[in-house]
Design brief:
With about 160 residues, the protein is an alpha+beta fold. The protein contains 3 helices and 8 strands, in the order E-E-E-E-E-E-H-H-E-E-H.
C-alpha cells in the first residue's frame, strides 16, 4: 500500500473520490507521456484520493494508488482537472501573481518538479511475512511550498 501527498490546482468537488481510468503510453514527447486510454485498450489504473486541505486556488491531497502505473497519480489528477503544481508534463506552468509576497513567489517559482511526495509505503516482509510500514517526511522544498500556499491563500476549510 502506498500513500502519496500532492499539491494540486483547484479543488475536487468531493472531499474524497476514486479515479478508475486505464492508462496507455501517448504518442507525443517521445512516448514518455501517459494518457487515459479510450475503449478496451490500456492498463487498468485506479487511484483513490482524499482532500487534506483546501485553499482558494490549490488543494493538498493524499493519493492512494491501487495500481502502480507510470505517472498514474499525475495523469489521473490532471484528467479530473486538478494537475499537480510544478508538473512539466501534465500541467501548465503556474506563475504567482505580483500581489503575492516576494518570498512566497520565490518559493513557488524555484520549485523545480511536480509537487508529489511518497509519504508512506506498507509491504509484507518476504521471509517474516510481517507487515512493515515506512514513512518519510516531505522534503524541505515541499514543506516550504505548502507553507507559502498557506501564507498567501486564505484557507476555505479543513476537512
Amino acid at each position: 500500500e502506498k500513500v502519496y501527498w500532492a499539491l494540486i490546482a483547484g479543488a475536487p468537488r468531493a472531499a474524497s473520490g476514486v479515479i478508475d481510468q486505464p492508462l496507455i503510453k501517448g504518442s507525443s514527447r517521445g512516448g514518455e507521456r501517459m494518457v487515459i486510454a479510450g475503449g478496451a485498450e490500456g492498463d487498468p489504473a485506479r487511484t483513490r484520493y482524499q482532500v487534506l486541505e483546501r485553499f482558494r486556488e490549490w488543494s493538498w491531497v493524499a493519493a492512494y494508488p491501487d495500481t502502480g502505473r507510470t505517472h498514474q497519480i499525475r495523469v489521473h489528477m490532471a484528467h479530473i482537472g486538478h494537475p499537480l503544481l510544478g508538473d512539466p508534463l501534465y500541467a501548465r506552468p503556474f506563475h504567482p501573481p505580483a500581489t503575492w509576497p516576494e518570498t512566497c513567489r520565490t518559493v513557488i517559482e524555484t520549485f523545480r518538479h511536480q509537487a508529489l511526495h511518497a509519504q508512506e509505503l506498507t509491504i509484507i516482509h518476504p521471509t517474516r511475512l510481517e507487515s512493515m510500514t515506512f514513512r518519510a517526511d516531505p522534503p524541505e522544498a515541499f514543506q516550504n511550498l505548502l507553507a507559502a500556499l498557506r501564507q498567501v491563500e486564505k484557507k476555505i476549510n479543513w476537512l
